[in-house]
Amino acid sequence: MSNQKTCAIYVRTSTADKQDPAGQEAELRSLAEKRGWKIFKVYRDHGFSGAKANRPALDEMWADCRAGRISVVCVWALDRFGRSLKNLIEGLEELQRLGIDFLCLKSDLDSSSAAGRLLFHIVGAVAEFEHHLIRGRIAMGMAEARRKGKHVGRPPLRKFSDADVQEIRARRRKKVSIRQLAIQFGTPQWMVKGLVGERSARS
Length: 203
Prior knowledge:
Blueprint: E1 6-13, H1 21-35, E2 38-46, H2 56-66, E3 72-75, H3 78-81, H4 85-98, E4 101-104, E5 109-110, H5 114-147, H6 162-173, H7 178-185, H8 189-195
Parallel strand pairs: 1-2, 1-3, 3-4
Antiparallel strand pairs: 4-5
Helix pairs in contact: 4-5, 7-8
């Protein structure tokens, strides 16, 4: 069937879990079969805490999603999929970008339904709002720093006194390399070349 959806089932358990992973998997398999979806693969992370950034089975599932092998991702609960609210939002955003539906059995969320599509829009709006908040905080912080007279951005280039310039030129005449002079005086090589009049010369 050309229009048949290809389903990925993801289950995760940790050593502290009391839930039966086999039961969760069976429920998700039953749901996929009722929907007429082809189960591409069941991805299982056993003994992995939700706080861990890297989970082998989840990483494998994402690789298959990005390769275009998956139409819908099914999980039993939201905390099985995302390790934090931020991580969950990022995951849902990525699925939306890839055009992959998301279904969470326990929370009764299905992005293929009208309510589920609304969820994706809300997730996108929250992510955009968070992005603007962060940018706003950075801009406010920089403005406050400037108001207090603090330098914002890259540190200024070192200023050299006449004595420093004469010393640099004298060492250069003694065949000290541009690189060594830059290190000794804590300045970029192009600055040294300018001070000794060798902007186009090789060091």
